[in-house]
Amino acid sequence: MVQFVSISLLLIFVVWLNYEIGKTNRLSRKKKDEFLKKETLANQTRRGDISSLNYISIPFDRLPLDDNPDQTINSYRDIILSHSHKKILNLSGYSNTDLKLKYGVSNINALIEYDNNYTVLVSVLHKWAELLYKKGYHQDALNVLETALECGTDVHKSFELLAKIYKEQGLSDKLNLLIDKISSSSIRDKDSLMLKLEEIIGSK
User: Fold this and answer.
1) Of 38, 106, 133, 152, which has the fewest CB atoms closer than 10 Å, so is most exposed?
2) In sequence order, which residues have a C-beta less than 8 Å from that of residue 179 and are 6 or more positions away?
3) Between 99 and 131, the higher pLDDT residue
């Protein structure tokens, strides 16, 4: 009797497992078919107008551009300066297929380049600010971080360091504005960032 029950349970498990595997395979095929259909349509989409997109302009007048004794700091400055004539777009919310569907396949290489320019911009702005802060140039670091904010950065560490400086300098109004800006944004992992900022605000 016990053996019969065990065999029955095993058969039930095997049937269930086969069903789940089949369902997973069907879903995978469906997703693959949908992607291929979407990609085919995207590759047939005609060129769209990208001249009026929300291009990012770097406010160089707010940045500490004078030579610094630290050559690494100067190298970060020079990278940012090299972006002065480049087109910059934050397209992190779009896949390449989405971009082709929206703006045409002939624009995809340019859009990828503009998005890469954004990635370099916000990454280097953070590294620049972080090193300035470590070297004791806190006001310069603040200026760089506020520039990053104006450029629409999505680097969590930049928000965290900016909040830390605001707290240290007693700039509660700016700190509150920063919190409000993040809470109303669509930045990735917003909840975890808000928790981190709350820790910074509550720290001594």
Assistant:
1) 106
2) 163, 194, 197
3) 131
Structural domain contains residue 1:
no
Contact present, 200 and 168 (Cβ < 8 Å): no
pLDDT tens for 38-62 read: 566 666 677 889 999 999 999 999 9
Distance CA 151, CA 121 (A): 9
CA–CA separation, 142 and 152 (whole Å): 15
Nearest to 125 by CA among 99, 88, 102, 151: 151
Give the domain range for residue 93.
Answer: 6-202
Q: Is the pLDDT at 109 greater than 50, yes or no?
A: yes
User: Would you tell me how many other CB atoms lie within 10 Å of the CB of residue 50?
Assistant: 17
149-153 LR contacts (CB < 8 Å, sep 24+): 149/178, 149/181, 150/59, 150/62, 151/56, 151/58, 151/88, 151/121, 151/122, 151/125, 152/56, 152/90, 152/122, 153/122, 153/125, 153/126
Residue 29 within a domain:
yes
Q: How many domains does the chain have?
A: 1
Determine, yes or no, domain membership for 59.
yes
Cβ atoms within 10 A of the Cβ of 7, count?
A: 10
